[in-house]
Predict the structure.
Amino acid sequence: MSGGAKLCFNPSWAAVAFPGRPSIENLTNIRIFVPAYEERSFTAAAVREHATQSGVSQHVRKLEEVCGVKMFSRNKGQVVPTPAADAYYGRRIQVLTFW
């Protein structure tokens, strides 16, 4: 697979898929996803990760592209996790431990 393996979950939201070794970029997207989910704010996640708000937004968007689902509903500064984000968050430790 060119450009590194995709790292996300299957459509049942139940399991994490590892088609090959995950790329560093995808793991960074996951690492940024966690504080965004916990803080419910890209700005607060950016402060927590010593990053910019736009950088957090870009990483989350890339993760959404890789997985093919929306992780957050975005509305005027509010970030509301979707059911996909809830399921993904529940598996994040296993993803990061796997690496």
Observations:
- The chain has one domain: 22-98.
- Confidence is low (pLDDT under 50) at residues 1-7, 9-20.
- The radius of gyration is 13 Å.
- The domain at 22-98 is CATH 1.10.10.10 (Arc Repressor Mutant, subunit A).
